[in-house]
Design goal:
This protein has 168 residues and is of the alpha/beta class. 30% of the residues lie in helices and 20% in strands. α5 (149-153) links the parallel β7 (135-141) and β8. The mean pLDDT is 89.
């Protein structure tokens, strides 16, 4: 297997391989490292995958090649109170687990309603994390097919969108 080409991820300037690697239920860091050795540059995880163990596996596997990969992680804010401090704390915990100083793309996970992205606490937290160099780009993931890219791109928080795709 090989990577055929690298594409620019939206307007981020990030060059990502045409094949990416998600770590929702991966248990072996060597698989991630092997994918990177084959040319995969984009690795996706989430705080909730395997109760944060996925982020730790990403960190274990890729910390030695951090400058060669694009890391995305996601945080779900659908439950509980959203505060600037709690968001920053959660992102910093992800940074520690992934053994990195920065996240390339930090996403709000499982967004059903774009009103979440207008929350002043959320926006303030992500703005601070960007200012501090802890995240580079922001966005969201969704399984709600009713959310359109047009709606998403009208929101200045959104730089990257991960949408549901079904081959069927």
């Amino acid at each position: 297997p090989k990577i055929i080409k690298y594409n620019t991820l939206g307007q981020t300037g990030l060059k990502v391989s045409d094949v990416s690697c998600g770590a929702i239920s991966l248990f072996e860091p060597n698989v991630l490292r092997y994918a990177q050795e084959l040319g995969v540059t984009y690795f996706d995880t989430a705080e909730s995958y395997m109760r944060s163990r996925s982020e730790s596996l990403i960190g274990d596997a890729l910390s030695g090649v951090r400058d060669k990969v694009i890391l995305t992680t996601k945080h779900n804010y659908s439950r509980g109170e959203i505060t600037k401090d709690s968001i920053i704390q959660r992102v910093e915990e992800s940074l520690k687990r992934m053994k990195t100083d920065y996240i390339d793309v930090a996403m709000c996970h499982g967004v059903d309603d774009l009103k979440l992205l207008e929350n002043p606490e959320l926006r303030s937290a992500y703005a601070q994390l960007k200012k501090d160099g802890k995240i580079r780009f922001t966005g969201f993931s969704t399984h709600n097919a009713k959310l359109t890219l047009k709606q998403a791109l009208d929101n200045d928080f959104v730089e990257v969108v991960l949408v549901i795709y079904n081959h069927l």
